[in-house]
Design brief:
Helix content: 40-55%
Largest sheet: 2 strands, antiparallel
Distance between the termini: 35 Å
Structural class: mainly alpha
Strand order of the largest sheet: 1-2
Radius of gyration: 23 Å
Number of strands: 2
Strand content: under 5%
Length: 127
Amino acid sequence: MVWLGPLLAFVAVASYFALFLNWAITRDVPWLNLILLALALGASIAGLVRSRRRVLASGGLVLTLALGGFFVWYCYVFSYGIPSAELALDVGSPVPAIVLRDDRGQDVELAKLSRDKLVLVFYRGHW
């Protein structure tokens, strides 16, 4: 019972990165992972109350809190540190005169490509 809390906390954190990042409903607001972390915290507290080995149970509680703290920090602090798109081009604005490299390593001038319509996608973020 003592290590049930840290085990649930590990499953909650690992399942977010391994599984739940694939769907927007569980990626944007990780409700299922937060529920698992709440259950892990409850199991750790119950393990601390019931255990005769207080040091071992305290270690389990600290590990659960550390995993939960890391997860909450990652989802609600670190992920919001991605730069904003204030300098992004507006829809319909002219393409600046820049040169980019394509997937073959050749230079491509954007002004030559934007005769009709041009869609540029830059993936911002971290994986």
